[in-house]
Amino acid sequence: MTILVKGAGVAGLTAAFALARRGHSVTLLDPKSPGMGASHYAGGMLAPWCEGETAPAAVVEAGEHAIDWWEEALPGLVERKGTLVVAPPRDQSELERFARRTSRHVWLDEAGIAELEPALAGRFRRGLFFRDEAHLDPRKALAGLVDALTSMDVKILTEADERAFSHIIDCTGRAAIQPGSQLRGVRGEMLYLRTSDVTLSRPVRLLHPRIPLYVVPRGEGRFMVGATMIESEHDGPISARSLMELLNAAYTLHPAFGEAEVIETGTGIRPAYADNIPRITGEGRHLAINGMYRHGFLMAPALAEELAARLQAVPQRRSATA
Ligand SMILES: Cc1cc2nc3c(=O)[nH]c(=O)nc-3n(C[C@H](O)[C@H](O)[C@H](O)COP(=O)(O)OP(=O)(O)OC[C@H]3O[C@@H](n4cnc5c(N)ncnc54)[C@H](O)[C@@H]3O)c2cc1C
Q1: How far away, in angstroms, is 39 Cα from ligand 1 center?
Q2: Atom of ligand 1 nearest to the CA of 297
Q3: Where do the domains of the chain lie?
Q4: From the CB of 188, is ligand 1 less than 6 Å away?
Q5: Residue 320 has pLDDT above 70, yes or no
Q6: Residue nearest atom 25 in ligand 1 by C-alpha distance
Q7: How confident is residue 319, by pLDDT bands cut at 50, 70 and 90?
Q8: In ligand 1, which atom is closest to the CA atom of 13?
Q9: Mutation test of ligand 1: which of 28, 39, 230 has the most ligand atoms closer than 8 Å to its C-beta?
Q10: Which CATH number fits domain 2-72+136-180+274-312: 1.25.40.20, 3.10.129.10, 3.40.50.2000, 3.50.50.60?
Q11: What pLDDT digit, counting tens, does each position of 41-67 carry?
């Protein structure tokens, strides 16, 4: 079996990794540098129980295994420090609602929050702690997969002739949003701040009735602030309104973010099906993984393994000498 994986985002890289690890001959095709699509802008939160607030049970179940998968695939990358969820005093009902709609959390009081994140001492009266969740740096994860694939002799090309391969796996993300594809795009804007005045150890979600946002520490004083959710395939620069909302959220979390440097802004288009559940589609030699929505890093491992298991079950053609 010779397999061409098209698209080197998190979907394509994890698929190529799962296939190459099983000994298949894999080639990865992307006209751009690997990992520069939507995956480049992700928060890297592996937060199935928080996502369960709005995500279907299938996403929570598949996402549960993602933390172990990433840790095993790229040792040392995953930070198992949980997720802290807080809300300003006027939005306490949001916290109650979030708690009702999710599982695997404990309530924290002011002292509990200060113990976890000393920088937030005295800022929030109550919070929720999702102890079993984790996060990773998506850019390191994508680069780590590229290195791992290279060491498994996977070729990474910018052009290839599809006829030379027995199987084609389309992981082209938003490029597959075409009439009849059932896919749509959900625009996500984010920014990076840099300051030495705030230290956080884990992703912190700030609830708000209109714009729930999060801050993910990246080390060396850098923080990713994300992310908007806009039903649009427009991938132009961040809007002034989104920039203000993201900065407001960071400032509400800690006023020292008001003095931080804005070192990057970005926009990614999340490809999604109507039910927001990613899936494998197609048949025969043409398969596709898509619809990662806001769960690319959470869901890609499960889909990659499902794909590899499917192809493993395909009867191999006898070679001429057998
Ligand atoms: C701001 C933001 C924050 C997010 N935060 C999180 C998070 O915390 N946790 C999480 O799990 N998910 C998160 N997501 C979602 C996640 O980033 C996406 O679900 C995921 O990146 C989609 O991956 P993909 O591989 O399908 O697409 P992409 O990463 O876009 O990759 C598609 C690739 O296909 C290539 N391509 C296009 N056309 C072709 C072609 N014809 N041939 C070959 N290659 C082609 C492109 O160049 C690109 O490299 C976030 C998304 C955004 C935008």
Answers
A1: 4
A2: 11
A3: 2-72+136-180+274-312, 83-131+184-272
A4: yes
A5: no
A6: 9
A7: very low
A8: 25
A9: 39
A10: 3.50.50.60
A11: 999 999 999 999 999 999 999 999 999
Tokens at 191, concatenated:
């920014």
Residue 38 CA to ligand 1 center (angstroms) comes to 3
Asked whether the bond before 227 is cis by omega within 30 degrees of 0, the reply is yes
* CB of 43 sitting under 6 A from ligand 1: yes
Phi, psi of 49, rounded to the nearest 5 degrees: -80, -35
- Tell me the average pLDDT across 252-276: 97
Q: How far is Cα 251 from Cα 114, in angstroms, rounded to an integer?
A: 18
Q: pTM higher than 0.90 for the full model? A: yes
Give the pLDDT score at 315.
63
Does the CB atom of residue 157 touch ligand 1 within 6 A? Answer: no
Task: Please give the CATH topology (third level) of the domain spanning 83-131+184-272.
Answer: D-Amino Acid Oxidase; Chain A, domain 2 (3.30.9)
**Cα separations in angstroms, 124 against 95, 111, 115, 195:** 11, 10, 12, 21
- Over the stretch 182-230, which tens digit does the pLDDT of each residue have? 999 999 999 999 999 999 999 999 998 778 899 999 999 999 999 999 9
